[in-house]
Structure formats: structure tokens, C-alpha cells
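Folds abound. Consider this:
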Amino acid sequence: MSTLPNVRDLLEGHVTLELESIDRLYLNGYVPQLQHGPGLVGFLCQHRGQPIASPALLGQITGKFVAEVKSFATQQAIPLFHFEGKESKDLRAHQMRRERPVRDAVVFIGIAQEKAHAFSAHRLPGKRAVFEFARNKSVLPNYYYFYLDDADWGECFIKVCSYAPWGLKVYLNGHEWLKRQSTKEGMGFESLDNGFLSCQNPQRLQALADALGPEQIEAFLKKWLDRLPMPLCAQDRRAGYDYRLSIWQMEFSLTQIVDRPKAGRQFFEEVIRDNLDLGRPDRIQLIFPRKIITPGSFRTRVLREGVHPSLHISYKRFDLKQYFKEGRGLRTEGTFHDPGDFGVNKGIENMPYLKTLGRQINRRLLEVERVSQNCGLSAESIQRVVQPTVTQDGQRVPGLKFGDPRVMALMLSLSAFGCLIDGFRSRELRQRVAALMGVGLEQYNASQMTYDLRRLQRKGIICRVSGSQRCYLTPYGWKLARLYARLEARVFRPALTVMNAPPIAPSGPLHNALQFIDTELDRLLTQAFPIHKTA
């Protein structure tokens, strides 16, 4: 009879290709000097030499840009059309790319009305023809989508707002960049949708992925700013009114192609089930190198699209997603929506740091999943926990008995805190234990917490770094906490529920078997000790 491979067996013995890379990348393009009213006045008067910073000048720049886009489309024979209100831009783009397979050129130009924050102007009182600008107006200007096929980046687009301050957005894909680089080097590969299924030289492929950074992205933008019609001309950019890029959304993925697609899918569904019982299922705290201040900043969700499940773990605006891709690859993917969640700004220069951070988070999640399916302990190590013991220096340590409410609350709390890189404080553990026991902090006081921490430390379950008030779960303690938590959630609680089910509850195999045993025991006792009726 075949057995289901665990995480360690599957990922360490059956992965044919492993790749860590930037995936989808959305960037904001903005001109720093044009983000406020005084800067816009300086641009119009000092740079462009206009005597009055009139709002009519902004309309002239917009009108000239629109005319240049139409002229550019006509000269290059590029399709130009308006998107419908609810039309899928991605579907239209796929259709147009099939119909017009160009290389290193504009595929088509789409126009869509979308919300933007634009400048409003008002004349200063008592002053003739002097305007003040404030960026506080919500409008629906036209955005111009330039869908491109770039020689280095493949399928991508740049969209430009036709209203001041003429911001733009850039969409790129790291896997598409890798495919183009591999083709240029003559390195054979087999594609997976938005990824790789196989490659002749995996080491070189990973080296290319590691090399991708801000330099290649800035070179891409400079190239197309020079080739496309833009509201700000080349002379404006040379004078310092150039676009700067910031990260709007960045995905960093780890793809592991397995040679057992069926077993891989079974493994993934097991992983989902095993990782929902870490403490509270909707507030799992996983692997993020930040101090947790807001209790609701973490959450776990399982989503299904048809029959394809995916595991989502969120921290603030960061989303960690895991799914089985096209029946062949395990994709672990972290999406940065706000780099400020991790202490850095959105500047593109912070991309290398975010890549390193994304790699650590993805790897840490896999390590937690390995441990969660490999928490077996020997009988001797379990006895060391549940029975009283004496340390090497002669200190007696009470046992941590399975089933004791306080012990179970401790273990469930530790299973949630154990994966935090910076450990936990006794105050944080005490609050969680009290909540799980359903009592207030006055019933579970600081002295009791100190007593529990002492026996956890002497049992080798937690440790404390010298000179620090933070505690850390040991590898042995992590396995033990997971074992207690899983036995409670997956075995004892369901079994007791079935055994104690009221008569009107639907019967099941376990309930029926227990009823049969009770009946047979009653019959044997009656036969062995018959009840004699008295006259």
C-alpha cells in the first residue's frame, strides 16, 4: 500500500526545478517636483517661461499630448481604441497580441477613463491673474495604455494619465524577462504559464533571476520614454523634471516543479489542513520579521477557484499565497503592497532588500510546513515532558500533563508564537493563555505565568537569551507544541464530541462502535453478577 509523501520527502526528493524570482511588478512613475502646487507653478513659470501659471496652460499640455498620441498611432499603424466600461483589459490585450504579434514595438494603445487626483486652481484674492494650485480634486481623466512587446521584458505596458501631474504606471513580469534572457543566451527551457517547467541550466537561470533589479527596470523606462509620446518632453526631463519609480505592487515567488503531480496535489491539501490549527485559525501568526502590535494584523484564508485551493496568509498589506500551479509546481508567493510594513519606503532602490525579505518569508513558510508534518517524538522525550523530572543541577520540575486546561492553553499559544523571528514576551504569552482558558488576567496572574515559564524552560521547551527579556521556542519545543495542538484539535476533541453526542445527534461509525462496546460490557456484567430478585 502506497503512503502519502510528507513535505520533507516531496520537496527534498522529487523537485526537478526550483526557481526564486520576481514575478509581477507594478510601479508608479511620478515627477517629484510636480506633486505640489508651488512645484507646478515653478515648472510653468521658471522652467517653461510662462508669465502666469494659468490652469489653461495645463489644458494646452494635455491637448498637445493627446494629439501626439493620435499622430503616433497613425504614423506607426498602431490600433487605438477606447476600452468599454466593464471590459477586461487583460482579455483584450491577449486578443490583440495574438492578432498583432510584433516584437520590440507597441502592440496597441487603449484609452480608459479612470479616477485620479488632479490639481485645482483658484485666483488669489486682491491679486490680478495670480493662481494657487492644490492637488485635491478627484477627476475622471483619460489614461492612455501603451501595450508593448519589449525585446528584454516581453509582454508589458505603460499607462499615462493625461492630466497634471501626468503620472504613469508600469507593469512588468520577472518571469517574462527571464524567458527573453534565456532565449538570447540560447538556453533551452520549457514554459509554464507565468513560469518555467524545465530548463537546461537551472543554475544559470537562478543567477539571471538574482541579477534582476532596479538597473534593468530604469533602463526599460528610459528607453520607452524616448520612444513614446509623453506629456513631458525630452527637454523637460533633461531639465530635471524626470520620472522616478516607486513600488506599487511586487510579487516574489518560489516555484518548485515536482515529478509527482498527483502526490504533490495531495500533499498541498494536507498542508492546508495542517496549518489551519496553529492557535486561532483566522489569526495565524507566521514568519514575518516585524514586531506584532495589532492583534488583527494577521489572518489566514483558504480560497477555492473551482477545485483548485490556495492558502493565503496576510500580514497588514502583505499577502503570502501558496497554491499548486497547473498540476506541476508548488508556487509560494509573497506580494508586497506597501514596503512600509517592513520599515522601508516605496523607492525602487529598496527592491534588493524586498527580494531578500521575500525569499526569507517564502523559505520560512516551507520550513514551518516541514515541521508541522514531522512533529513525531520518541516515547522517552514525551515521558520527559508529562512526568516530573529533575534537572542536572538538582531542580525538580513538575510535569506538563496532556489534557490539563492550563497546559493545553500554553501549548496552543506556543505553537502560534514559535514561528516569530524575534520571539515573544511573557506578557504576550500570558494574554493569549488567559484568553484560551476563558479567564481574565487576574485569574491567570503574573506569578502563575512565571511558574509556567520556569517549567517550560527547565523542560527544554523554551530558552531565553542572556540579557534579553524575550523567550524563544526551541526546535524540540516547537515539535512538542505542534504535537499537543494537533492531537487536541484532530483526535481528542473530535473523538470526545462523538462519544458525548446526545441521542438525537446523527450516529457515525465511532459512535456506533462505542455504543456496541457499552452494550456488550453491560451484557457481560449482567451475566457475571446476576441480580437476584427478592420476595
